[in-house]
Amino acid sequence: MSVSYEVRYASSPDAVKKLDTKELRNEFLIDNLMKPDEVVLVYTHYDRYIAGSAVPASKKLTLETIDPLKSETFLARRELGVINVGGDGTVYVDGEAFELTYKDALYVGMGAKEVIFESKDASAPAKFYLNSAPAHHSFPNKKVTKAEAKKLELGTLETANARTVNQMLIGGVVDTCQLQMGMTELKTGSVWNTLPSHVHDRRMEVYMYIEVPPEQSVCHFMGQTDETRHIWMQNEQAVISPPWSIHSGAGTSNYTFIWGMAGENLDYTDMDVCPINELR
């Protein structure tokens, strides 16, 4: 079996206030992604969300079910989002091939029985980043390239947060039950993401940082608006954001991050914004 997983339980804001650095990282940081020839999954009790990766280097990889799902197949009651952050690869969904190049996305609907990952070149393997959420309806599978994404230009260079938000697996681009995914690219000279900071108690979120240059880092901020915490992160690491937490970051260089979320609704603008000068 080439699938490994771990389970993360939900934590209250009061409990998180008492965590030291190591405990905070153990609770929210996902630092074991992109292992060659392995599917790695983290099952979180925040909206039953799963984040993970599949890197088919020397062999094809199959997305197998895991014990917490109590189902014969992984997608029996789930939907799946895939974004390739490596070399060219192919995702086979019940025999249908979807070729994904760098930063291409794929939505896989509930009920798909077999999902197989393959790289075009073993020396430059595909790196498939995976997000999954419970589903109630089977929507069609659909590939979405970055060019096909809905784009938002936000921020300014003067405030060091000029960025392009690529909405990829989201309403208006593809039909989903509750899963939403996209990619935000910071422009050269900008380092801050998701400002002004906000929370949305109706949804949880996971960020996965990519294109962080070697020897550089991103400081990810989380916590309640009046009780923030931070986690230093490296390239191809992800972080879980509870519904009650902000999710923002600043890097020592510009970078890109993939966001995924699920929860009560599909309204992308559903957020409670905190003015920057009121953060504590």
Could you name the key traits of this structure?
280 residues; mainly beta; Jelly Rolls; 7-stranded mixed beta sheet; 7-stranded antiparallel beta sheet; 24 strands
Describe it for me?
This protein is mainly β and 280 residues long. The chain has a single domain (12-278), classed as Jelly Rolls (Sandwich), CATH 2.60.120.10. The protein contains 2 helices and 24 strands. The chain has helices at residues 13-16, 21-28, and strands at 3-8, 29-30, 38-44, 50-55, 61-62, 78-84, 89-93, 96-100, 105-108, 115-119, 128-134, 142-144, 150-154, 163-169, 180-186, 192-193, 198-199, 203-210, 218-224, 227-233, 237-241, 248-251, 256-263, 272-273. Strands 1-3-4-11-6-9-12 form a 7-stranded mixed beta sheet, with no helix packed on it. The chain has a 7-stranded antiparallel beta sheet with strand order 2-21-18-23-15-14-13. Strands 5-10-7-8 form a 4-stranded antiparallel beta sheet, with no helix packed on it. A hairpin with a 5-residue loop joins β3 (38-44) and β4 (50-55). The model has no long low-confidence stretch (mean pLDDT 97).
The appropriate CATH architecture is Sandwich
Shape: globular
Distance between the termini: 46 Å
Strand order of the largest sheet: 1-3-4-11-6-9-12
Class inferred from helices and paired strands: mainly beta
Oligomerization: single chain
Q: CATH first level: which class?
A: Mainly Beta
Radius of gyration (Å)? 18 Å
Helix content: under 10%
**Secondary-structure element pattern, one letter each:** EHHEEEEEEEEEEEEEEEEEEEEEEE
Characterize the biggest β-sheet: 7 strands, mixed
Query: What is the CATH superfamily label?
Result: Jelly Rolls
Protein name: 4-deoxy-L-threo-5-hexosulose-uronate ketol-isomerase
Family: Belongs to the KduI family.
Binding site for Zn(2+): 198, 200, 205, 247
Cofactor: Zn(2+)
